[in-house]
Amino acid sequence: MSPSSPVRSTLAANLRRERSRRGLSLSELSRLSKIGKATLSQLESATGNPTIETVFSLSRALGVPISDLLDTGHREALTVVRAAEVDVLSGEGVDLRPLRRIEADGVIMEVYDQQVRADSRQPSLGHAGTEHTVVQSGTLSVEVDGHQVELGPGDYVSFDASLPHQYAANDGPVRSVLLLHYRSGGGPPEAPGTPH
156: how many CB neighbours lie within 10 A of its CB? Predict the structure, then answer.
């Protein structure tokens, strides 16, 4: 990610806004997110290098969808996202490209191109929302709260993203589409058919 990366500047502005909205000091947010105060200061000044782990920790600590931290809020009648124009958010074993945030009927959907690197894993302590993954190529190992499943091309998995989970690619790289969805007010969305 270049020093003038749009992800850095967008994250910086959105992080300052969300922290201010909650009346949190850098020290308080550091304690809640388990991210060092110096790192938070760098992120807010757009000089830090955000990772998947950092953004997910901030999402969890602030109780906001990930796209609230990464989205520019700019909307067009026709949206085209070119692969070469989107910054990659990398983690221990995964590269994510945020493609789109969709908001309708009180639900927020985030769409990501997700690539799990060969012979790597991406653990998560959990974050807001419900996670959906559709494997495009490769074999993806998914573990959620101690339960493990193997997925191949065309396979789908969904789970409560607040649970500890991890993705692993043990047999070569994996390409998948990751969807995260949230209720606009911050709570988990209701499953289809759930009575009100």
Answer: 12
Residue 123 Ramachandran class (φ > 0 left, ψ -120 to 50 alpha, else beta) = beta
For residues 196 and 190, what is the distance between their CA atoms, to the nearest angstrom? 9
Give the residue among 151, 154, 147, 156 at the shortest CA–CA distance from 170.
151
Q: Are 112 and 97 in contact (CB under 8 A)?
A: yes
Instruction: Say which residue, 152 or 2, is predicted with more confidence.
Output: 152
Closest CA to 166 of 195, 141, 138: 141
Four-CA torsion 96, 83, 64, 193, nearest 10 degrees: -90
Least confident of 25-34, 148-157, 186-195: 186-195
Give the pLDDT confidence score for residue 27 in this predicted structure.
93
**CB atoms < 10 A from the CB of 21, how many?**
10
Tell me the mean pLDDT in the region 132-149.
97
